[in-house]
């Protein structure tokens, strides 16, 4: 088992690069499509797609830039970045990490807004572009404020080094840019709660809204053309598949718990948490 994980651990630069290449190309292609090939009937909804696509594009760029590994040491959150940012500074790695946290939270808001939009247009006319634009920008505010505040939670490298020296000196020999916090500070705990507390309410909203959309489609089925009904059904299916992707983060949480409670340890598991 250890031998297999060791080989996988050596492949993480390739894994990050592959994820980045797929994510970058597909998101750029989608962004170009929304600007050049969006039908007139979907112009308003394309605003939401653009926001979500730019958000995901930033996320994969941050992941490649940092190639971050979480060091599981009870009493603190520490990070070791092996990406291009490590050639710049630990601060650059940490700022990219804060930005990535912001995009992860905002992706949930985009998902919820997409379902809400489907329900809205079943009852009313399509909203104005300006209204959708204001909503999507407003949804950026909470994660951006939280991410910005989190940029001030980084501890000096000397403090992080001393913490590792006293609690996990093995990490001091690892290559990469090291960053972390001054223990479990209130600011750190708030950010953790904000990030892990967002998915629950969002998914509750998604489930409720999805059921309402399906119910309304069934009620209006006799008044809709076959083409319109198919379009709505396809959108709901696509959004449902999209909503199934973020829970993959549960795997990362499970890996962290395995390491935190010392059930099994391997450096590759630390690298896999964020990946």
Structure explained in plain terms:
The protein is mainly alpha-helical and 275 residues long. The protein has eleven helices and three strands; from the N terminus they run αααββαααβααααα. It has helices at 2-10, 12-36, 43-66, 90-123, 129-150, 157-167, 186-197, 199-220, 226-243, 249-260, 267-274; strands at residues 68-73, 76-81, 177-180. Strands 1-2-3 form a three-stranded antiparallel β-sheet, with helices on both faces. Strand 1 (68-73) and strand 2 form a beta hairpin. Helix 4 (90-123) runs antiparallel to helix 5 (129-150). The two termini are 20 Å apart. The mean pLDDT is 88.
| Class by SSE composition | mainly alpha
> What's the average pLDDT?
88
Please describe the biggest sheet, giving its number of strands, its sense, and whether it closes into a barrel. Answer: 3 strands, antiparallel
Question: Rounded to an integer, what's the Rg over CA atoms?
Answer: 21 Å
Distance between the termini: 20 Å
User: Which H/E pattern describes the elements?
Assistant: HHHEEHHHEHHHHH
The total beta strand count reads 3
Specify the overall morphology.
Answer: elongated
| Alpha plus pi helix count | 11
Indicate the percent of residues in helices: over 70%
What proportion strand?
A: 5-15%
Taking pLDDT < 50 over at least 5 consecutive residues as the criterion, the unreliable ranges are: none
The neighbouring-strand order within the major sheet is 1-2-3
Subcellular location: Membrane
Family: Belongs to the nematode receptor-like protein srd family.
GO cellular component, one term: membrane
Membrane topology: Multi-pass membrane protein
